[in-house]
């Protein structure tokens, strides 16, 4: 049996490649990459020669069995993504899972990830956190995800595309309130690395005022909901009890009066509540 190495690569600064990652990438039989062109550039910069197998969202399903067969035949493969740690909002899940199912050893070669880099620099509580890789881009699914983020008690780390950032900040301000703390971590490890800290209103004002803050790669770190706030989680038992006696509209009114949260927002949440 071979080994599948899951190798982290830099998220900007090339010096963040580890010595172990270099050695493994240099020695394996093939490197499974998200994009052969980008991997080619990276390997050229690192001075490593390797043979690549393209593996991305569109061919994961069909390529996995052949890769597992190579591992079963004793080959050593390294899985990388375009940047950072594979499987973190990047391809690789199917391959890693299939390797485990086939009894193949999977070994991580840890390194950069925007998730932990942003969290470590944000200065918000880290004892418990939630990772939200790219929220749905639109519609009810997006609204629901944003509402859940606003209601979480722990810190959330969110990946978002630059053109959706202003909308995300605005929606979070509505759902979580203008005073909630947030940190926008942009272009980490790169030349224009910037961390904007403050309340959601302050972060949004800066993003609205400076075009550059809407450019590049970014992670939003959002503080958890304060203890005193009635969150979806804490309201749920009461909501369920009320729903057994009252229609959703009246339940929303009672909950709004009790919690101080907007009635419409509560009504939408009640409609989505799994009847359980
Ligand atoms: N696998 C990667 C990781 O471990 O972070 C993430 C890949 S995901 C396709 C790309 C997203 O990660 C970006 O849209 C951004 O949200 C975040 N990201 C990646 N590099 C970043 C950087 N240098 N600074 C800030 N965010 C970054």
Outline the fold blueprint.
Blueprint (H helix, E strand, L loop, with lengths): L2 E5 L11 H9 L2 E4 L2 H11 L5 E3 L5 H13 L3 E4 L13 H9 L3 E5 L4 H9 L6 E4 L6 H13 L3 E6 L4 H12 L4 E6 L7 E6 H10 L8 E5 L9 H12 L4 H12 L3 H10 L4
This protein binds S-adenosylmethionine.
Name of the level-1 CATH class of the largest domain: Alpha Beta
Name the strands of the widest sheet in spatial order: 3-2-4-1-5
Q: What fraction strand?
A: 15-25%
CATH architecture of the largest domain: 3-Layer(aba) Sandwich
Number of strands: 10
Structure explained in plain terms:
The protein has 276 residues and is α/β, with parallel strands linked by helices. The chain folds into 3 domains: 3-112, Tetrapyrrole methylase, N-terminal domain (Cobalt-precorrin-4 Transmethylase, domain 1, 3-Layer(aba) Sandwich); 115-222, Tetrapyrrole methylase, C-terminal domain (Methyltransferase, Cobalt-precorrin-4 Transmethylase, Domain 2); 232-272. Helix content is 43%, strand content 17%. The protein is built from 11 helices and 10 strands. The strands form 2 sheets. A 5-stranded parallel β-sheet has the order 3-2-4-1-5, with helices on both faces. α6 (139-151) packs across α7 (165-176) and α7 packs antiparallel against α8. The longest helix has 13 residues, at 60-72. The mean pLDDT is 95.
Give a nutshell description of this structure:
The protein is 43% helix and 17% strand.
């Amino acid at each position: 049996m071979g080994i599948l190495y899951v190798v982290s690569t830099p998220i900007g600064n090339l010096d963040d490649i580890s010595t172990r990652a270099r050695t493994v990438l240099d020695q394996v039989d093939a490197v499974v990459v998200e994009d052969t062109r980008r991997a080619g550039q990276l390997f050229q910069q690192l001075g490593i020669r390797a043979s690549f197998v393209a593996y991305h969202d569109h061919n994961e399903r069909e390529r996995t069995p052949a890769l597992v067969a190579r591992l079963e035949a004793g080959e050593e493969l390294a899985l990388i993504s375009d940047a950072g740690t594979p499987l973190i909002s990047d391809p690789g899940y199917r391959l890693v899972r299939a390797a485990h199912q086939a009894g193949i050893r999977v070994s991580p070669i840890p390194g950069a990830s925007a998730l932990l880099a942003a969290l470590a620099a944000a200065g918000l509580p880290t004892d418990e956190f939630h990772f939200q890789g790219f929220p749905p881009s639109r519609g009810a699914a997006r609204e629901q995800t944003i509402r859940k983020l606003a209601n979480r008690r722990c810190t959330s780390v969110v990946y978002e595309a630059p053109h959706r950032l202003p909308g995300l900040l605005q929606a979070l301000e509505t759902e979580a309130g203008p005073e909630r703390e947030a940190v926008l971590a942009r272009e980490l490890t790169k030349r224009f690395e910037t961390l904007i800290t403050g309340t959601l209103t302050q972060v949004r004002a800066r993003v609205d005022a400076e075009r550059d803050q809407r450019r590049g790669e970014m992670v939003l770190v959002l503080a958890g909901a304060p203890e005193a706030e009635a969150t979806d989680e804490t309201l749920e038992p009461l909501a369920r009890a009320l729903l057994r006696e009252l229609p959703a509209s009246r339940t929303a009114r009672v909950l709004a009066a009790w919690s101080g949260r907007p009635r419409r927002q509560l009504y939408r949440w009640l409609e989505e509540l799994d009847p359980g």
